[in-house]
Amino acid sequence: MNSALCAKNPKTARFGREIPDESTAAEGTDGQGTRTREQTMFIGEYSHSLDAKGRVTIPAKFREELGETFVVTRSLDQCLTVYDMDAWEEFSRKLTELPYNSPEQRKLVRFFLSGAAEVEPDKMGRILLPQSLRSFAGIDRDVVLVGSGARIEIWSKENWEENTSAEEIGRIAEKMLGEGFMI
């Protein structure tokens, strides 16, 4: 199933995010020294296959918002995450601001940054997924690209199906509903 929306419908695909600004209130701020920036919200699911060279097509709706260059890295759920450059800069800044004296922090920074690759789509909208990232995510042929809010995830078809079983999602929803989450 191929369906997606991102960033073209302001009512459903954008959300405002406050960015602290150390300067005084200026044009483009909320009058209190805080700039606001619209951030793309990626939604939808696309199924594709890798070509013989390890390239995958990024859906046009996603490419429009990602820009000419973006970053692909490991994620926590044995998938890959795609960030536009602004989101990547913010994410990597937060990672590197964590206390470096913690072994856990150093491992976390290494996990995300050492696996990161800047990519540019070719004229057909394909990007090369480095072999190390494909191996990490278990991607060999069939992939699913998923809009996941401010980022895109790239899954092997098998891992995606395992992680989105109705039974598992039902358990998660039940647990979250018990904690006050409303659907």
Low-confidence segments, ≥5 residues, pLDDT <50?
Answer: 1-37
Task: Work out the count of structural domains.
Answer: 1
Strand order of the largest sheet: 1-4-10-11-7-6-8
Percent strand: 25-35%
CATH architecture: 3-Layer(aba) Sandwich
Radius of gyration: 18 Å
Beginning-to-end CA distance, first to last residue: 23 Å
- The average pLDDT is 79
According to DSSP, the number of beta strands is 11
Order of helices and strands: EHEEEEHEEHHEEHEEHH
* Proportion of helical residues: 25-40%
The CATH topology is Chemotaxis protein chec
Q: Structural class of the secondary elements?
A: alpha+beta
What is the C-level CATH assignment?
Alpha Beta
Oligomer: single chain
Shape: globular
Largest sheet: 7 strands, antiparallel
CATH superfamily: Transcriptional regulator MraZ domain
Counting DSSP H or I runs of 4 or more residues, the number of helices is 7
